[in-house]
Amino acid sequence: MAAQSLLSESVLGWSIFTFILLVILAFCWVYIRKFQSRQESEVVSTITAICALAIALITSALLPVDIFLVSFMKYPNGTYKDWAANNETRGQIEDTVLYGYYTLYSIILFCVFLWIPFVYFYYEEKDDDNVNKCSQVKNALKYTIGFAIVCVALLLIGAFVPLEAPLSQNSTQWEKVQCLFEKLGSSHGLPALSFSISSLTLIGMLAVITYTAYGMSVLPLNLIKGTRSVAYERLENTEDIDDVEHQIEKLKSKCKDGRPLSSRDRHNLQELEGKLRVLQRRGRHLEIAERNCCTKVGMALRPFKMLLGIFFILVALLLTVALFISNLDKALHSAGISSGFIIFGTNLTNPLNELLLALQPVFPLDYILITVITVYFVLTSMAGIRHMGIWFFWIRLYKIRPKRTRPQALLFLCMILLLIVLHTSYMIYSLAPQYVMYGSQKYHVQSQMPSAGPTSGNATSGITKICDADAPEDQCTVTRSYLFLHKFWFFSTIYYFGNWAFIGAFLVGLVVSCCRGKKSVIEGEVEADDSDISDDEYVH
Fold it and tell me: Among 212-216, 247-251, 510-514, 535-539, which stretch is predicted with the lowest mean pLDDT?
């Protein structure tokens, strides 16, 4: 009976995970195809981008399964179920989830340090003239080796960095080295992989602060404010064209008698002619948008977009408040910087943590909520990247626009989104620390109480408590995700301060988004550095 219960609950958890896996693959395919350039599409880069984004989302989808399995080992009264009473059975379930994390995190390392860099540099070399396939592969491998060296260095640092007190001073160097390898073998390489993933998560934190925080404000406010009227934009564009043509004719009239234009006038003429070409392209796009049925459907769905925008901004405010409460709780009740601000229990009421704990027994409601939060982070991150573009410090590398994104930009996009989704695991822990650490587990505590009867003595009674860091190790099972997130205290400390930076960036982005007006109906379709040939992607 216990074996059947274990099988049915395991099948339920992994069946939901399989369904989410198929949804993720479909979402990634539609997402990448939406932004891919039709003229410069490449099969290998498309497959790479879809797979990289899917792997990142699948890794996040494994988190609720991890929480579900540790939670369903126990009854609400804090006692273990029959199939989970054996330590060996619980260990097997935990190892299954652990191997899932090993596999997915190893694939992420492969994508970030080998696969994506190779494909990126391969197409960078393809842009050069007179370069054959062999030279492309050779040059791409040459640059990729540098990324591989960084990956190996991170693995080695994570494998041998001391996390515990060193051996006594009387120990020989050989005994110390032997002890390091014994620890590496006993931990099955967990510190090495955890250090590498934490290093990537640190980069993802910077991307979250930059793109996600801004996207969480700009996406809902754009939905609420809507776009400008197409008819009014066409009228305004026509007036601008007439004005520019008048200025061009005025400059050209200076050389009708054969006199050459001055250098300043020639420069102004070139600028006006370039501006005229942009306005003419803009007019063509506005004309297409006015005839497009999607624009008319969008106008009909305007009330729904406003409601969706209000819902998104409420979700953003909820996440920000939950993150603020969690960080404040850590600042007031944690052991400080030296412990990575790890909190021992929840001391302040966190609305999102309470909601997840309430939904967790009714699986898969919590699974759906965390998936929605993860997808929300991806959508808002993409909104931030699309509005800001991909930058390297003050240098703008690529623009992200529907149907006009280059293969290299798509790879950059998926690299950033992969790192962002990696950091969402810690973000979700910050938003709901107790849920991510123990799920809905409880444990039973025996206490002595004086008996109220004719016989004197004490009676034994049980008290059910919610699992926290003070609970006995054999009574509460910690999720495997938590072990990956908090293997190194200094990363947790950096993430803690990163959360404060995220809150500040969101508030700044909210102010900036509120001050901006409505966006154009053809936002991002026409830029001054586009070619006339690129209009074919929209016309046809």
Answer: 535-539
Q: Is the pLDDT of residue 280 over 80?
A: yes
Residue with tokens 């586009």, as numbered in its chain: 530
What span, in angstroms and rounded, lies between the C-alpha atoms of 431 and 243?
A: 54
Burial 196-212 (b: 16+ CB within 10 A, else e): bbbbbbbbbbebbbbbb
Least-confidence region, from 41-45, 310-314, 450-454: 450-454
- Residues 73-101 have a mean pLDDT of 79
CB-based contact 489:339 (threshold 8 Å): yes
Q: Can you give the length of the chain in residues? A: 540
Count of beta carbons in the 10 Å neighbourhood of residue 473: 7
pLDDT at 430 over 60: yes
Question: 366: which residues sit within 8 A by CB, 6+ positions away?
Answer: 64, 67, 68, 356, 359, 360, 435
Which residues, 6 or more positions from 30, have their beta carbon under 8 angstroms from its beta carbon?
Answer: none
Q: In the structure, what pLDDT confidence band is assigned to residue 500 with cuts at 50, 70 and 90? A: very high
The yes-or-no verdict on residue 301 having pLDDT over 50 is: yes
Strand partners, 445: 463
Report which of 412, 504, 507, 495 is spatially closest to residue 206, judged by C-alpha positions. 495
Q: How far apart (Å, rounded) are the C-alpha atoms in residues 249 and 256? A: 11
Alpha-carbon distance of 335 to 485, in angstroms, equals 17
Give the span between the Cα atoms of 273 and 260, in whole angstroms: 18
Number of Cβ within 10 Å of residue 455's Cβ equals 6
Q: What are phi and psi of 259, to 5 degrees?
A: -75, 140
| pLDDT, position 344 | 60
Determine the pLDDT at residue 508.
93
